[in-house]
Specification:
471 residues, six-stranded parallel β-sheet, 18 strands, 14% strand, disordered N terminus, binds uridine-5'-diphosphate-glucuronic acid
Length: 471
């Protein structure tokens, strides 16, 4: 199909429309659907025909609350077109937004090959005044380096970067309520054109240079990862001193300079973003001659949390896991998603299976994805079936459904009454009342009392560093 190429696109100060979004993955799909729903005409371009077919049938390829409803609506309203041809996708487009994957290379650097290919393919068909936008997460300096790919008929197309802040499981909500809109580039008018796309949102706007915008994206994820690893180290200290990490997090997080969010102690961070971005930022720092020790420590602490959790399970079962049946509640890297990339579940379950345990797992939505990477694990959609005959129940993902389980019923189905909660998410009183020993992260173990009431395990903390008597 050939279309006439218009020579200029007037910048009339209105919202740019139509636009092209390249990549129907997590970020691209949510962004395209969100912008289409806000009134912009969006062409969503992808090279994956299967994915496009599924989308045309108004089915979302990812589990994300609200996404499928919105997808159906914008397709019916004709605001979202699904394109497999870059010529069609770019015809008259004022903006082209590249939102393709930047998976890790073996050494942790971000693989930019998809970004390069996607950018080249749309730049080749862009109108001369179109603005190219990098939405993918790219290392500092990348957007500057990509400029040569944005030449069309001897003319330089304008290129800016606009990082995303969507979290899986709440991506549609986050799209409508972002903490900020960040746009980086040398050309102020190009940045402002992209900003107008998001002007319907009630969010602060930050326009800066492209490298700073790229570092803001990494900085947010890296800092949140540091927060998680910080509270997990504090959890260690809580176990050693007899303190309770949930109280500590409440108190530390009450200081508005710190904040309570991302102080959830447990199995640490997983997913397709924090682990990948932390390594990529570390690699970028090394490339520029700087060792980012703080970030490396956060990654190391995060890895240790998974091993510590397995050690807790092993200790609870008196050291020998061979032939023991363990029921794992949760497979997704966090609630609200079916994504198991870099999920704690994968490491923990593999580790348990390597030690001879038989693992049964349950998750509301992530079983199909997890089955591909955990071939030995028995999968149960019904958590009550999963716990049948278990020597220990271990909580890996804090789905609200697990908190609501009938623990008296669970108690009747298991072989031993042991729960190891890797996310500190269960109601300790409820599970102990049902007869379980409740082991969690950074808190005292609680055991059911033979008489009325509940026994809290004596922690036998180390003697205090400063003796009061000697003062
Ligand atoms: C993260 C960021 O939160 C988003 O802002 C960002 O846009 C996204 O990465 C990205 O770069 O695309 P996401 O990975 O979807 O989003 O999920 P988070 O809610 O941030 O959780 C990440 C991991 O940290 C999860 O494994 C979660 O279980 C863990 N976590 C989170 C904790 O262990 N403790 C907490 O207190 C919070």
């Amino acid at each position: 199909m050939t279309r006439e190429l218009s020579t200029s696109i007037p910048d009339d100060g209105g919202r740019p429309s139509p636009i092209c979004v390249v990549g129907a993955g997590y970020v691209g799909l949510v962004t395209a659907v969100g912008l289409a729903d806000s009134g912009v005409q969006v062409r969503l371009y992808d090279i994956d025909q299967e994915r496009l077919t599924q989308l045309r049938q108004k089915r979302s390829p990812i589990h994300e609350p609200m996404l499928e409803q919105l997808l159906g609506r914008v397709i019916e309203q004709g605001r979202l077109e699904l394109c497999s041809d870059p010529v069609v996708a770019m015809h008259g487009a004022h903006v082209a937004m590249v939102a393709v994957g930047t998976p890790p290379l073996a050494d942790g650097r971000a693989d930019l090959s998809q970004v390069r290919a996607a950018l080249s393919s749309v730049a080749a068909h862009a109108e001369p005044h179109a603005v190219m936008v990098i939405k993918s997460t790219v290392p500092p300096g990348t957007t500057q380096l990509l400029r040569p790919l944005c030449r069309r008929n001897g003319r330089q197309l304008r290129l800016v970067v606009c990082p995303e802040f969507l979290s899986e499981g709440s991506a549609v909500k986050d799209f409508h309520h972002p903490p900020q809109v960040v746009i980086g580039g040398d050309d102020r008018a190009a940045c402002e054109r992209v900003a107008r796309l998001f002007e319907f949102l009630d969010a602060p706007l930050l326009i800066t240079d492209s490298t700073s915008a790229e570092l803001i994206k990494y900085g947010v994820n890296a800092f949140l990862a540091l927060k998680i690893s910080f509270i997990n180290e504090m959890a260690q200290l809580c176990e050693l001193t007899g303190a309770d990490v949930e109280s500590v997090a409440d108190g530390v997080g009450a200081d508005p300079r710190i904040g309570r969010s991302f102080l959830g102690a447990g199995l640490g961070f997983g997913g397709s973003c924090f682990p990948k971005d932390a390594r990529a930022l570390d690699q970028a720092a090394s490339y520029h001659g700087h060792s980012f020790w703080l970030l490396r420590a956060a990654v190391e602490v995060n890895a240790q949390q998974r091993s510590r959790f397995v050690a807790k399970i092993q200790k609870a079962l008196r050291g020998n896991l061979s032939g023991k049946r363990i029921a794992a509640l949760g497979l997704a890297f966090k609630p609200g998603t079916d994504d198991v990339r870099q999920a704690a579940s994968i490491d923990v379950i593999r580790h348990l299976e390597d030690m001879g345990a038989i693992v049964a797992a349950s998750d509301p939505v992530a079983i199909p994805n997890a089955t591909r990477v955990l071939p030995l694990t028995e999968m149960f959609a019904d958590p009550y079936e999963c716990v049948r005959g278990a020597d220990a129940v271990v909580v890996v993902t804090e789905w609200p459904q697990f908190r609501e389980l009938d623990w008296t019923r669970v108690a009747r189905m298991v072989r031993r009454h042991v729960i190891v909660d890797g996310r500190n998410c269960l109601d300790a009183d409820a599970v102990v009342a049902a007869g379980f020993t409740y082991i969690s992260m950074g808190r005292a173990t609680r055991r059911p009392s033979t008489k009325a009431g509940v026994a809290v395990e004596k922690q036998a903390p180390a003697p205090p560093l400063v003796s009061i008597a000697s003062e």
